[in-house]
Amino acid sequence: MKIHYQIQFLSDWHCGSGLSSGAEADAEVLKDENKLPYIPGKTIKGLLKDGLLEMPEISAGVDRKNIEKIFGHEIVKDGKVIGTENGSAFFSNATLGIEEIKEITSTMADFMYRNIASTAIEKTGVAEKGSLRTTEVCMPVTLHGTIDGIEEQETKIIIKAAKWVRHIGVKRNRGLGRCRIIVQS
Prior knowledge:
The protein has one domain (about 1-20, about 30-115, about 140-185): Alpha-Beta Plaits (2-Layer Sandwich). Helices cover about 25% and strands about 30% of the residues. It has 5 helices and 10 strands; from the N terminus they run ββααββββααβββαβ.
């Protein structure tokens, strides 16, 4: 079975590429070949799995076996990880919708981003030397993706996990990446 989901960002956000743009920004947003933002499916998978791993103690109907079946798990022998077992679910990248992609040209894509700066402040109130960091962020948008390979009853588990994800990306404790994930079964 395949389900669709939306990530509605409620604030600027940064899901990083690990690259910098020289003097412009120390950290760039992950972009596709058309300069449009996206979030890798493996990131979405990890966020949902992390949410579920926190749930079993307080949420009936979600246990470790369900999580391992959907998301996979490490194989441990004698306290050492010796491999991994793939889960049944496949997560696509989360991208802008088809209509948005059609409307945004490569020249307009640059207007989706801005840079924010932060620095560490010493007890004296002066910025720590060399601590200025500039991060590129993306404006609030709605991204779309799919999850394939799950059974119908597992959809309820994915919906529960999606409700737990409130922020995506870096600087979540600084107000970036506030979001809502809506699963459309």
